Amino acid sequence: MGWLTLVAAGLVEIAWALSIKPTESFTRPLPTLLCLVLGVSAVYLLSRAMTTIPVGTAYAVFTGIGAVGTITVGVLVGKDPATPGRLLALALIVGGVVLARVTA
Known about the structure:
The protein is mostly helical. It has one domain (2-102). 78% of the residues lie in helices and 0% in strands.
């Protein structure tokens, strides 16, 4: 159950990261509220996952999911560049997350 909770935390982190820009530097109340709720939710889910997964492993996987997901959405939806260097970075992060999972 801890790993499912950790994946959920990572997915919420992606939504949280993507919710920051629409706040326009936290000047728009509703987007700001959504951003805060998503941030708190991501950390709450991470804390629940840490009850069964070592802290270092949980945090590394959490941030890895967030980084890969946010970059992927940026490339697919936001027209961010998909340079060879970025794709290599994504592959290294995914490899690290998989390694952390199988060795936990």
